[in-house]
Every structure is written in C-alpha cells, then in structure tokens.
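Async update (no meeting this week)

Hi team, since we skipped the sync, here's where things stand on the single-chain job. The sequence we agreed to prioritize is pasted below, unchanged from the tracker. I ran it this morning and attached the output directly underneath so nobody has to dig for it. Comments welcome in thread, and please keep replies under the output.
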Amino acid sequence: MQSDTVVTPTDHRRGSQRPTITIIEYADFASSACRAAEPAVRMILADHPKTVQLVFRHFPLESDHPLALMAAEATEAAAAQGKFWEMHDALMREDARLERPALDRVAVELGLDIAMFRSALNDEIYRQRIREQEAGAVRSHLRESPGFFVNGRACDVSGGMHTLANTIGAMS
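Output:
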C-alpha cells in the first residue's frame, strides 16, 4: 500500500515544479483554523518559490462542519474544469459562504460550465475521491484540521503556523 504522504499525479499542487520540500495539507473548507492558516501557507510559498510545493488534500470534518463535504466536492467539480485553485482560494476566504447557492455563485464567477458543475454536485461524483483523502488523513493519525506533513513527516501546528514556517526555513 502506498504511503499517505506520497504525492500522486492526481494531487492538487501549487508552488515549485521541482520542489525539494513538499508540504501536504489536509484541510476542511469550513474550518476557521484552516482559513486562518491560509495566509501563512501562502507566505511560505511566496518566500520559497523555487523549493516548496504545496499539496492539498481534503479532510472535511462533517460532524463539526456539515457544509464541508459539499465545499470539497465543489472544488473537485471546479478542478474538472481546470479551476481547482481558484475555487479553493474563493472558499478559503474568511467570509466565504458554503451553502449550495453560494457555491453556485462562485462557480459562475469563475466562469465554470454551471450545468456541469451542478451535475457533479448533484451526482456526488467526487465524493469517493474526498473519502479516500479523508481516510488517508485518518490513517496518518490526524484528528483535526489543518494537518500538515513536510517531506512525509508530521508538523504539529497546534502552537501556531510559525512552527511550519520555521520547519521550512530550517530545511531551506
């Protein structure tokens, strides 16, 4: 069985195309902690454009955030039209709404084929992919989000995102 920290061709990635450092983030779009971590993640990528790559994986904590799964599905539906990161960024904004009408509005704003987007959400065609990523988070012993791995090793950010930044800085 493949490790849950191995980057695959189907992973959503941003940052360096030839990274020496890979951050895997397991996150939940409805989590205020994930939204609060987003500026720090962007800063790390901006500070290390040639060496750091971010891999995003879904970890919707539905018991706490009932809209998280549908938001994750919306990003996957956007990914099918080449707009994963645009939808990700829109949903990670602090004031982002995750109800279905709001997701549809974002899809329209991003220029997505709205019929295709709605069909993907209605048919839950990306749910299995999200469940697989969620299972990977559980196998990796994550209990909350965001969860970070740096080059395959867990990075505890419970004390703040400076821990992740310092870890990356020490490796650069």
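Quick observations from my side:
The longest helix spans residues 32-47.
Residues 34 and 40 are 10 Å apart (CA to CA).
Reply here if anything looks off.
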